[in-house]
Amino acid sequence: MSAENKDSKWGDLLAEAKRERAQREKSYREMALKLFPHVCGRCGREFSGKRLSELTVHHKDHNHDRNPPDGSNWELLCIYCHDNEHQRDEVAQAYGQEEARQEQKPTSTFKAFAGLADLLKDKN
Ligand SMILES: [Zn+2]
Ligand SMILES: [Zn+2]
Description:
Elements: H1 3-35, E1 55-59, E2 74-78, H2 79-104, H3 108-121
Antiparallel strand pairs: 1-2
One zinc ion binds at residues 40, 42-43, 45, 77-78, 80-81.
């Protein structure tokens, strides 16, 4: 495997994925903030003004591509509770997804990128 080549390619892919994701996130976050009170669904803290940026949109089914406009797949969580929520599910989820992927598409590139995308999803 030539790491150098891969890295620059990854860089491009990542930059593009990040741009797209940022745009998508901005739009559904705005919608979610209009729909729901600005309160964390776990700890119940309220966020306003500058601190509103600490409130994030969690996808109940963990599928960031499913954004029904009625907000049924969204939950507002503060960054701390959001982290917890994902840590709790990470092991079981990663295991399940890994199995599913191996059945569908056995190429290592696909798996690596999908894993990377998962890692990026909720970190910002
Ligand atoms: Zn919270
Ligand atoms: Zn989430």
